[in-house]
Write a structure and sequence with these properties.
2 domains, about 270 residues, OB fold (Dihydrolipoamide Acetyltransferase, E2P), 8 helices, five-stranded antiparallel sheet, five-stranded parallel sheet
C-alpha cells in the first residue's frame, strides 16, 4: 500500500515531537502535518485528507471529541486517541475506539497502536470504524449531559494522588501534595519537592490534566505550582507577576495564565 499519510494533533510541542521521533524511521508512514488545537485539526483533516490521525483528547478551544463531532464519525480518518486524564474516555475507548494511548505511554505501546492502525487501513473496514466512532461520540455526549443534569463537572477526570519515581535504581512513591512546583523539561517534568528535584516522564500539560486543579495551577506554559506553597505575589511588568514560594523560590506568572490563578485564589490581581 502507499505511505500512511499521518496527522499529529496535540497542543504540547514535546508530545508532538515524541510521536514524530517514534515514526521518523518507519518507512510506510509519512507525516503530512501537525496541529496544535482542535480548530486547526479540523481544517487539516479537510485539506490534507490524512489516512491516520493521532488525536489528543484534551486541548484548548476544541478538544478531540469536538473534532470528531465536527468532521463527523463517518468521515474521520483512522484515529488513535491520545489521553492523559479521562477515566470515562478510557472505558469508552476500550469498547468503541480503534485504539488509544494513555500518557505516558511506552515506545512498545506506540508500536502496537501503529500496527493496529496499519492493519485496519489494509483491510479498509471504513463502515465498521465509522460505526464505532459514532458510538463513542454518542456515549461521550450522553455521559457529559448526564453529569451536567446531576450538577457535576462535565469532565470525569482521574486525579493523581501519588507518582512513581525511578531514580538511581530506586523506585518510590511521591505524594502529589508534597510537590512544591513543577518545571517542564521536554517530554519530562522536573518535580520540585522539599528541596529535592525528581525527573518524571510526562509533559507539564499531561500532568496538569491529571493533578487536582484545586491544588495545582498552571502559571506558565512550562510551570505548575502548588497553591498551598505560594507566599507572595509581586508585580513585575506588563501584567506579569513574580510568585514567591514559601521556600523563597521565585517563579514568573505569565499574563495569559493570570486569570486562572485569580480564579483559584478567589481574588483579582
Amino acid at each position: 500500500m502507499d505511505k500512511i499519510r499521518t496527522l499529529i494533533v496535540d497542543d504540547e510541542p514535546p508530545a508532538r515531537r515524541r510521536i514524530c521521533e517514534l515514526i521518523e524511521n518507519v518507512s510506510d508512514v509519512e507525516i503530512v502535518g501537525e496541529s496544535t488545537n482542535g480548530a486547526d485539526a479540523i481544517k487539516a483533516i479537510h485539506e490534507k485528507k490524512p489516512d491516520l490521525v493521532f488525536l489528543d483528547v484534551q486541548m484548548p478551544e476544541a478538544d478531540g471529541f469536538d473534532v470528531l463531532e465536527t468532521v463527523t464519525a463517518e468521515k474521520m480518518p483512522v484515529t488513535v486517541f491520545v489521553t492523559a486524564y479521562d477515566r470515562y474516555a478510557l472505558k469508552a475507548f476500550e469498547v468503541n475506539a480503534l485504539d488509544y494511548l494513555l500518557k505516558p505511554y511506552s515506545d512498545e505501546r506506540f508500536v502496537i497502536a501503529l500496527e493496529r492502525a496499519r492493519v485496519h487501513l489494509q483491510t479498509q473496514k471504513r463502515d465498521e470504524l465509522g460505526a464505532k466512532m459514532l458510538a463513542l461520540l454518542q456515549d461521550y455526549n450522553h455521559d457529559q449531559a448526564s453529569r451536567r443534569q446531576n450538577g457535576q463537572a462535565p469532565e470525569a477526570s482521574s486525579r493523581l494522588d501519588r507518582l512513581v519515581i525511578k531514580s538511581g535504581g530506586r523506585v518510590f512513591f511521591l505524594k502529589t501534595e508534597e510537590i512544591d512546583w513543577i518545571e517542564g523539561a521536554g517530554v519530562y517534568a522536573k518535580l520540585h519537592a522539599g528541596g529535592k528535584t525528581h525527573l518524571y516522564r510526562e509533559t507539564v500539560g499531561g500532568l496538569a490534566a491529571q493533578l487536582d486543579p484545586e491544588r495545582f495551577v498552571r502559571i506558565h506554559r512550562s510551570n505548575l505550582v502548588n497553591i498551598d506553597r505560594i507566599k507572595e505575589l509581586q508585580p513585575y511588568s506588563h501584567g506579569e507577576y513574580i510568585i514567591i514560594l514559601k521556600d523563597e523560590t521565585r517563579l514568573k506568572l505569565s499574563r495569559s495564565y493570570r486569570p486562572m490563578l485569580q480564579m483559584r485564589l478567589g481574588q483579582s490581581l
